[in-house]
Design brief:
about 475 residues, alpha+beta, 7-stranded antiparallel β-sheet, 6-stranded antiparallel β-sheet, 17 helices
């Protein structure tokens, strides 16, 4: 079945979206069950589809489906069919245009050396260029995801799994963290700039790889370390070996992992995400404090930054907005009347806390501005006397091409308007974003170093750390978007 399924949620379409989470294990009798649990912990990184491929030494077993991890793998009979002590899994959030069932990962192919499965977090910025070249050479693609380019490049190479994978990845641009499964190996690899996260853990004698440490916590595994940028880890029955097969490049881990994408209870590059967000909120308070009665987070992603802001400003923190956690992504048909209800299906004002108050709303970002406008209207309708908005990231002025579902630049509010105009559009008394230097201070740096930043911050600065072969200079989505979907 190759039909396109509906994925648009009219009540939650104003956030940047991570594209997927990956997980892998080798050396545990309950490999598939552990993978399902790990994917459950990574559900925030993708809610539209999930898949697991396992290996028992003789055969591969797979289950992939649209929907949440719990819905797809909650049935014990499905887990029992995924035999073996090795498995990899993937949970996916697709780009605009829908989830196509044949795109659900892990992808699987038969090579001369045997079966091979691949799960990918990130986006290849020269996938269209490579795809056209491969099709011209006779390759026949089965999916519309950029990840399949890696499979075909491996097919053109020679040698064992590792040799072919290195040869393939040496030709791609962009961002990738991969979990791969062969007959008796799990291979994990992170791109030379380390844009997307990937961690290594251990449970008894089994090695684990995952997008975040929260996926290790849920299964009781120990966190060992983050994979280095450009590192390939090969796990087999003999143990683990580490390779550095790619030319060294300046590391550019995604700073938005700390602002929004990662779960707050995760540790990214040795840094507590929760503590980082509190520091960002405190720095935001120092930069743009304003007299107020109450600091209110926009739940849930604004909570840690709002705590840091309130503590630094010595202003009471309170839950002035309550989130309904049970609004699904396909809750109701998005008619015009239902769209008008908008944010109220997901958030509701806590009138008793807001009435007559000067309120500071803290959120992690403003993308299109539509949700921010509705939240401000809701808070004012609840009786707030003043509404000030503080954002714990710099203005998002450029699209991301490294695995984040970002609107085209023309749809980004900060790319079209200055802060004063944005404040008027959203309807707040004042609006302020953390500065780019303030963000770096919160992350332990004195300031951002131009042309050599510690993080990938291209969505704020337009300074992309890799070539963008498939993309136009305007910073919009490429023409290939209708054919290829980001992993």
């Amino acid at each position: 079945m190759d039909g396109v399924l509906p994925t648009t949620n009219p009540f939650d379409d104003d956030k940047l979206r991570e594209e997927c989470g990956i997980f892998g294990v080798l050396g545990h009798k309950d490999a598939a069950a552990l993978t399902a649990l790990g994917l459950h912990a990574l559900q925030h990184r993708g809610q539209e589809a999930a898949g697991i491929v396992s290996a028992d030494g003789a055969a591969f077993h797979t289950h992939r489906a649209v929907g949440l991890v719990g819905d797809n793998f909650g049935d014990r009979s499905i887990i029992d069919q995924l035999k073996g002590d090795a498995a990899i899994g993937h949970t996916r959030y697709s780009t605009t245009g829908g989830t196509i069932l044949r795109n659900i990962q892990p992808l699987f192919a038969e090579f001369e050396f045997g079966g091979f499965a691949l799960a990918h977090n990130g986006n290849l910025t020269n996938a269209d260029f490579l795809r056209k070249k491969l099709v011209g050479q006779g390759s026949i693609f089965q999916s519309t995801t950029d990840t399949e380019v890696i499979i075909h490049l491996m097919a053109k190479a020679h040698g064992d799994v590792v040799t072919r994978l290195v040869a393939a990845l040496s030709q791609v641009e962009g961002a990738y963290s991969l979990a791969c499964l062969a007959k008796d190996q799990v291979v994990a690899v992170r791109d030379p700039r380390g844009v997307r996260p990937l961690v290594l853990g251990k449970l008894d004698d089994a090695f684990i790889v995952a997008s975040e440490t929260c996926a290790l916590d849920i299964i009781g595994a120990d966190y060992v370390r983050d994979l280095d940028a450009g590192e390939m880890v090969v796990i087999d029955r003999k143990g683990l070996r580490s390779l550095k097969p790619f030319p060294q490049a300046a590391k550019r881990a995604c700073v938005f992992e700390y602002i929004y994408f990662a779960r707050p209870d995760s540790v990214v590059e040795g840094e507590s995400v929760y503590e980082a967000r509190k520091r960002i909120g405190a720095e935001l308070s120092r930069e743009s404090g304003v007299p107020a009665d109450l600091v209110v987070p926009v739940p849930d992603s604004g909570v840690p930054a709002a705590l840091g802001y309130a503590q630094e400003a010595k202003i009471p923190f309170d839950l002035g907005i309550i989130r309904n956690h049970y609004v699904g992504r396909t809750f109701i048909e998005p008619t015009d009347q239902i769209r008008h209800l908008g944010v109220k299906l997901k958030h509701n004002a806590n009138r008793a806390q807001l009435q007559g108050k000067r309120v500071i709303l803290v959120d992690d970002s403003i993308v299109r501005g539509t949700t921010s406008k509705k939240i401000v209207e809701m808070v004012r309708a609840a009786g707030a006397r003043e509404v000030h908005m503080r954002i714990s990231s710099p203005p998002t002025t450029h699209s991301c091409f490294y695995g984040i579902d970002t609107p085209e630049r023309g749809q980004l509010l900060a790319a079209q308007h200055d802060v004063a105009e944005m404040a008027r559009i959203i309807g707040v008394d004042t609006l302020a974003f953390i500065t780019i230097d303030g963000l770096y201070r919160a992350m332990g740096e004195k300031a951002r170093i131009a042309n050599a930043p510690k993080f990938c911050d291209a969505c704020f600065t337009g300074e992309y750390p890799t070539a963008l072969t498939d993309y136009d200079e305007r910073g919009g989505k490429p023409a290939r978007a209708s054919l290829l979907e980001i992993a």
